[in-house]
Write a structure and sequence with these properties.
Layout (H helix, E strand, L loop, with lengths): L2 E5 L5 E5 L4 H10 L7 E4 L5 H12 L2 E5 L5 E5 L9 H6 L7 H8 L1 E5 L12 H9 L3 E5 L2 E5 L7 E3 L1 E2 L2 E2 L1 H11 L5 E5 L5 H13 L2 E3 L6 E4 L7 E4 L4 H13 L3 E5 L7 H9 L3 E4 L4 E4 L8 E4 L7 H11 L5 E6 L7 H8 L3 E5 L2 E5 L8 E3 L3 H13 L3 E5 L2 H6 L3 H7 L3 E5 L1 H6 L4
Parallel strand pairs: 2-16, 3-15, 9-12, 19-20, 23-24
Antiparallel strand pairs: 1-24, 1-25, 3-5, 4-5, 6-8, 7-8, 10-11, 12-14, 13-14, 16-18, 17-18, 20-22, 21-22
The structure holds uridine-diphosphate-N-acetylglucosamine.
The site of uridine-diphosphate-N-acetylglucosamine has 25 residues, from helix 1, helix 5, helix 6 and helix 10.
Length: 430
């Protein structure tokens, strides 16, 4: 697998554009199954998860084409296909978002239990509970979800789980309900911006949805949905990662196309660390603090600090002047990055669901292994700040979720290069 070689210690500076949101793009591409007309999504990031979902959709009879301008065109050409490819679904959890649309539009679906990042327990009970409430007959056999329905029927569905609402579960149930007969009311719905964006796309198909962005979403089913052209929101997680890169290297970076309104919690944390922020409507400039102050943060569902930024903020905290406390209530086991950060000299203690980080004066380059998408980002950030050379191994996870991250960081002055798998192996990196 490819690796990244980073020579740390250079403060990042310059301007960089934020890509379209991965977590908005994926359920939207799956939602194209619902539509009887052509769908064009503008601003779809070019990353591995999008490519994997494109392959999956092609095998489900959806023609998918990316053009040179970053738009993806989707059109249903063979609605008889209902079986999702096992190997492709195993690569990414979000591919499970095809279940609701398949069931609603094609009345049958066979979808393997999903894979994805190793960030702790990731059940799908709420997805199945929601679709069953809409009248689907669902069985789980030998690792496959086998679902069928005549026409789905609107119902009251609660999607609140022990760790908060489910994001992709809300996407699945909301998408399916657009073609159900009657009214569906989802309570305990996720209010993440990506869910609002999906709802807005579905509305542009002709769906009747109200309450998106609140915990109660009401969907009046319609008989048919048409095509649409729609621009995806910018990626708040990528934006936060780039801000953390500026903060940890003591740099000054301006983000273009920044979704400032979706980043309030993260921006407040960076400000509390002593970073100076200049926030315009679509642009943010961060000037790093001379001395970063420690933080006490808890990752929560939106509008709280995203669990997807927890590991990056942890990386920044490794160099703060004092002791930080990091808790994750969405994925309490999402702390695989800690052990790897320790390899670079971080002083971290882990307890169930949280970590204590005692800031050190300096991190030192080392070889670290990426274990999941956002953990990989945290290691890259630590490498950018560390003294000497850091190698981040197994960056397939990073490629899953970031569009050309190393190119963007290099454009800000970072010394970072990709070692192709063969070259990495030649120098003993696997
Ligand atoms: C989505 C995001 C992911 C992010 C996560 C939380 C996409 C493609 N992925 O993942 O980047 O980290 O939201 O913001 O949008 N749960 C249940 N039962 C279920 C489903 C989930 O108990 O059926 C639990 C999970 O274990 C977790 C919590 O609910 O503790 C939130 O998970 P969920 O919102 O479903 O995460 P994803 O939608 O998979």
């Amino acid at each position: 697998m490819d690796a990244l070689r980073i020579k740390g210690g250079i403060p990042l500076s310059g301007r960089v554009a934020v890509s379209g949101s991965k977590n908005a793009a994926l359920p939207m591409m799956a939602a194209a199954i619902l539509s009887d007309g052509p769908v064009t999504l503008d601003g779809v990031p070019d990353l591995l998860d999008v490519q994997t979902l494109s392959s999956l959709l092609s095998r489900l009879g959806v023609a998918v084409r990316r053009d040179g301008a970053g738009s993806v065109h989707l059109e249903n050409i063979d609605p008889a296909l209902i079986r999702a490819d096992r190997r492709l679904v195993a690569r990414m959890r979000a591919s499970f978002c095809v279940l609701g649309p398949l069931l609603a539009r094609r009345r049958r679906a066979v979808v393997p239990l999903p894979g994805g990042c190793a960030i702790g327990e990731r059940p799908i009970d709420l997805h199945l509970h929601g679709l069953t409430a809409l009248g689907a007959d669902i069985r789980v056999r030998r690792g496959y979800v086998i679902a069928r329905a005549r026409r789905l029927v609107g119902a009251k569905v609660n999607l609140l789980g022990p760790h908060g609402p489910t994001v992709t579960g809300t996407a699945n149930v909301m998408s399916a309900a657009t073609l159900a007969r009657g009214v569906t009311t989802i309570t305990g719905a996720a209010i993440e911006p990506e869910i609002v964006d999906l709802a807005n796309l579905l509305v542009s198909f002709g769906a009747r949805i109200a309450g998106q962005g609140t915990s109660t979403i009401e969907i009046h089913g319609v008989d048919q949905l048409g095509g649409a052209r729609y621009r995806i929101i910018p990626d708040r997680i990528e934006a936060a990662t780039l801000m953390c890169a500026a903060a940890i290297t003591g740099g000054s970076v301006t983000l273009r196309n920044a979704p400032t309104e979706h980043m309030q919690a993260v921006l407040a944390v960076l400000e509390s660390m002593g970073c100076m922020l200049d926030i315009q409507e679509r642009e943010i400039t961060l000037r790093a603090a001379d001395v970063t102050r420690p933080i006490r943060i808890t990752a929560l569902p939106y509008p709280g600090i995203p669990t997807d930024v927890q590991s990056q903020l942890t990386a920044v905290a490794t160099l703060a002047a004092g002791c930080s406390r990091i808790e994750d209530r969405v994925f309490p086991d999402r702390f695989h990055h800690l052990r790897e950060l320790v390899r670079l000299g971080a002083d971290i203690r882990r307890a169930p669901g949280r970590a204590s980080v005692r800031g050190v004066m300096q991190l030192t380059g080392a070889t670290a292994t990426a274990t999941d998408l956002r953990a990989s980002a945290a290691l890259v950030l630590a490498g950018l700040a560390a003294d000497g050379e850091t190698i981040v191994r197994r960056i397939r996870h990073l490629d899953r979720g970031y569009e050309r991250l190393e190119e963007k960081l290099a454009s800000l002055g970072a010394r970072i290069e990709r070692m192709k798998a063969r070259n990495a192996a030649a120098v003993g990196v696997r």
